[in-house]
Design a protein that fits this description.
Layout (H helix, E strand, L loop, with lengths): L3 E5 L8 H16 L3 E5 L6 H11 L8 E4 L11 H12 L5 E5 L8 H8 L2 E6 L3 H11 L2 H10 L5 E6 L8 H7 L6 E2 L8 H5 L16 H13 L1
Parallel strand pairs: 1-4, 1-5, 2-3, 2-4, 5-6, 6-7
Bound molecules: adenosine-5'-triphosphate (ATP) and magnesium ion (MG).
Length: 229
């Protein structure tokens, strides 16, 4: 078994990386029966912290999926975070079916290409104002050379754009500008700006009944499942 690694990335902060990752992880865990690991590589807004709080309240702890924290800052003079991240991936690769990586809002350094290199898929949450779109385009332009290197080694790197916090002011012309940049596939389904995404922050909770076929989250989740098979 070699894990499918899905990273949630965008250079822009606050676009919904952690929110989408948590919902996706919970649904993968509850609905597919596969082994899920979350790497919380953004210890600032900690998913791991959320889990600790939930553990104190939740009795059925054994049914949690696993979360491991990772810090990009140097622990001591001889610590090399990039190497440490690589080692972590090697350690967990054969133990899980899906590994979801949460990434910090502001990443400028070498960790960006490294996370991309170890990923099979990158989910890029996008907020559709013209300002946000330009920073997303700048971010996407990092991807093609990394993908080319991966292809040489016999691997792929697929990038999915998911419109988040969609509201009536969504400008379709802005979204069209994104289609195909760096080979990104825009999802057909959008995630709306709804309190349910804000409110139900949990590492565990499956947002909606999977049987609700027309629910937009289920449409998103099923579209993702279809693409990562
Ligand atoms: N679809 C949505 N509807 C309503 N609120 C949302 C939605 N998606 C995210 N939010 C809210 O927007 C804020 C930012 O979301 P989140 O923390 O997931 O973004 P992020 O990209 O992980 O941010 P950071 O870059 O700081 O890590 C949070 O308060 C979250 O609850
Ligand atoms: Mg986050």
């Amino acid at each position: 078994m070699s894990a499918t690694i899905i990273s949630f990335m965008n250079r822009k902060g606050g676009v919904g990386k952690s929110t989408l990752l948590l919902l996706t992880a919970s649904s993968l865990h509850h609905r597919t029966g596969k082994k899920v690991l979350v790497i919380d590589a953004d210890l600032q807004t900690s998913i791991l912290g959320l889990r600790e709080e939930e553990k104190e309240m939740e009795q059925g702890e054994s049914s949690f999926y696993e979360i491991v924290g990772f810090s990009w800052s140097k622990k001591n003079a001889s610590d090399i975070p990039l190497l440490r991240f690589h080692k972590l991936i090697q350690q967990i690769e054969n133990k899980y079916d899906y590994v979801l990586v949460d990434t910090p809002g502001k990443m400028e350094g070498e960790e960006v290409p490294l996370i991309m290199t170890v990923s099979d898929f990158i989910v890029v949450p996008i907020i559709a104002s013209s300002f946000d779109i330009q920073s997303t385009i700048d971010f996407l332009e990092i991807i093609p050379p990394i993908r080319e290197d991966k292809i040489k080694e016999g691997f792929e790197l697929k990038v999915f754009g998911v419109v988040n916090k969609k509201d009536r002011s969504l400008e379709h012309k802005h979204l069209e500008a994104l289609q195909g940049i760096a080979g990104m596939e825009l999802f057909d389904t959008h995630i709306s700006n709804l309190v349910r995404y804000k409110r139900d922050k949990s590492t565990f909770y499956d947002l909606v009944d999977p049987k609700e076929k027309e629910d937009e989250f289920n449409l998103y989740f099923n579209e993702l499942l279809g693409k990562i098979k």
